[in-house]
Amino acid sequence: MAERGTWQGIRRGAARVDAATPAERDRAVDALRAFAILGVVLGHWLVTALVAKGATGLRTASPLQHMPWLAPISWAFQTLAVFFLVGGHVATRGHASARARGTTYGQWLTSRLSRLFKPVAAVLTLWTVTSGLLLLTGTDLATVHTLLKLALSPLWFLLVFAALTAATPLLLRVHPLWPLAVVLHVDLLRFGLGAPAWLGWVNLAAGWLVPFTLGAAWTRGELERRRAGWILLVGGAAVTAALVAAGGYPASMVGVPGAGVSNLNPPTLAAVTFGLTQCGLALLLRGPLRRAMRRPLLWAAVALLNLSAMTIFLWHQTALMATTAAALTAGHLPGLHTLPDNVGWVAARLAWLPLFAAALALCWTAFRPYEQGPRRPVNRKSRVIRSQPTPRNREKKAPHHA
Q1: Which residues is 104 bridged to in the sheet?
Q2: Which terminus has fewer CB within 10 Å in the chain: N or C?
Q3: Alpha-carbon span 337 to 52, nearest angstrom
Q4: Alpha-carbon Rg of the chain, whole angstroms?
Q5: How many Cβ atoms are within 10 Å of 214's Cβ, its own excluded?
Q6: Cα 387 to Cα 398: distance, rounded to the nearest angstrom
Q7: Confidence of residue 376 (pLDDT cuts 50, 70, 90)
Q8: Mean pLDDT of 248-272
Q9: Rounded CA gap, 379 and 245, in Å?
Q10: H or E segment at 129?
Q11: Residue 147's closest CA among 58, 62, 227?
């Protein structure tokens, strides 16, 4: 009976969120952002292994290093291109809305970046204290470095995303082919003409600028026809397959320890064309997602995840590491502390995912106020359900910042 009452309470809460959402909001945008964040989280949990060395030491490893045939996992869960696509779309629309309301560029940018970086302070503070305590208790420096690298690795993404957001007024009319051409030429110089490896870091901006400017093109209404999505999906997949099969690019779309070339650090042409594939699929899914998001329970889940997107993104690696470190007291457990070199490890890792999710839920409970701010009165609408116009309504109503 209690379970039935709980379920009815959840349904009523979801119905309230659904009713409070303006009819003109494009829910597909929120759904794509939520899927992109979940993809990154699950991808990291599946391919990041912390192998025990000694009683307390840990080192990083990856099942992709020992089982290359698992590369398709990275195709499914390396979803950063979709996040940059949505980010470019929202930033471009938000900037236009801010100008229409008379908001200055500085005010708009401060609002955007504060939502990105407020949660970062909590992560940096906790890991500064944790690192100091680990060193004082005798943990070896290599293990502390491993943990810090994993915990703080999401910050590179935020820095690039913040830089592109700040440059939004300059990128409004940049065609995605221009940064794509930069990536192409950088790779030709690196891999074809023996240019220094550091030149590849030019692609850190140029590579993610491709989906970001695609998002701007989406805002301008240039990607509304389904043909655009199919061109990106089919063309991107074909070029990526050719680059992997004949161009010598790795099949994995994430970095693999010990590999000579990483598709992600810095981004390569293969990673960018694969991102175009994902963007094409995302554009094609807008219609089905809009229909799916009419279901109150689904929409409430997506709205909640969007409210906590940065908290989830910043703390998911900490949740994995906390679980792994706490379980060391029970010995070297399969799928958690053992070398990821067989199918048994994969099965065991899948069994650990609910525990990672529970640890992340604890982090979310503790640190979400840094992103969401103090709780608002129940009669005020949350920022996650502020108006976000669909293309059909864009001409009828000036878009609001989201």
Answers
A1: none
A2: N
A3: 5
A4: 22
A5: 27
A6: 10
A7: low
A8: 92
A9: 57
A10: helix 105-136
A11: 58
Answer whether residue 391 is part of any domain: no
Q: Would the pLDDT of 49 be above 60? A: yes
Q: pLDDT tens digits for 73-120?
A: 999 999 999 999 999 999 999 999 999 999 999 999 998 888 888 889
pLDDT band at 375; cut points 50, 70, 90: low
Of 329, 339, 357, residue with least CA distance to 62:
339
Looking at the domain assignment, is residue 123 inside a domain?
yes
5 located within any domain = no
Determine the length of the chain: 402
In a 13 Å sphere around the CA of 101, the CA atoms on its Cβ side amount to 16
CB-based contact 218:388 (threshold 8 Å): no
The whole-angstrom separation of Cα 402 and Cα 389 is 10
- The per-residue pLDDT for 28 is 95
In a domain, 18, yes or no: no
Q: Provide the number of structural domains found in the chain.
A: 1
The answer to whether 181 touches 272, Cβ cutoff 8 Å, is no
Q: Is residue 272 scored above 60 in pLDDT?
A: yes
Domain range enclosing 325: 26-385
Assigned token pair, 330: 């029970």
Query: CA-to-CA distance for 184 and 199, rounded, in angstroms?
Result: 12
The CA-based angle 69-243-81, given to 5 degrees, is 80
Give the separation between CA 307 and CA 114, rounded to whole angstroms: 14
- Indicate whether 186 pLDDT > 90: yes
Under 8 Å between Cβ of 286 and 295: no
| Count of beta carbons in the 10 Å neighbourhood of residue 195 | 14
Q: Residue 59 forms beta bridges with which residues?
A: 51
Question: Position of tokens 């590849």?
Answer: 200
